[in-house]
Amino acid sequence: MYAEVNGTKLYYHTAGAGRPLMLMHGGLGLDHTGFLDSFGRLADQAEVIYYDHRGNGRSQRYESLGGVTHETWVADADALRAHLGHEKIILFGHSYGGFLAQEYAVRHQDQLAGLILCSTAPVVDYMDVIQANAGARGTAEQLGALGQAFSRPMADDADFQTIWKAITPLYFHNYNPAVGEAMDARTSYSAAAWNQVNANCLPVFNVLAQLGQVNVPTLIISGIDDWITPLKQGGERIHAALPNSELVVFDNSGHWPFIEEQEKFVRVVGDWLARLG
Length: 277
Hints:
single chain, alpha/beta, Rossmann fold, 11 helices
């Protein structure tokens, strides 16, 4: 289904019934499909809202996203909330989607019944740590692809797909090639989105000083083996900044706890939703 909101068309679909749980995917340049297996198991507790950000996945695409900012993507999400008729939502953000979810909470906490932040950080001011982590775990091919991913624009969607496939194993504690192939097969890639956030949005992202204003009940999830949003720089800093938060660490996960430890993830999130009331 498509919602025409905020001057764009957003692809979305829902599953289940109950309190609305809206999911913000990461990348950017990826889409919602990585959530399907895990969150489908939560559809007995919530109306799960999957959607692709502007310029991503199956939403309206653009040759360039120049001028689009975090404020734009947050406004899109809030317009989708209103379009679906929800006064309040529970918002889940993974990775870059977690950056946007934090920005949403800062701007629109009155529209939030709860917030879940997974494998994300409040600011990316630790590039030395990221580089050291990548160097310690990556093959020469993976490190070469990673260097390209963050040093030049992706030429097109196919170029971005090739680079992303090469670096995907870095994001897992125990990489299963079959899982990676399945993720790739259903992902609709967007080079334009990746290029925009890395050149113009990520360098200025920083909500650390603002999180103390957010009093929404928040569940923070971090994988112990996450090389790009590590526990110390990510989940622990968010937990320390948010006054109404709890942190759960996944000991056998990298950047994708809802894939690598699906049983634990569904149990942890399900229990938290039940306690949310």
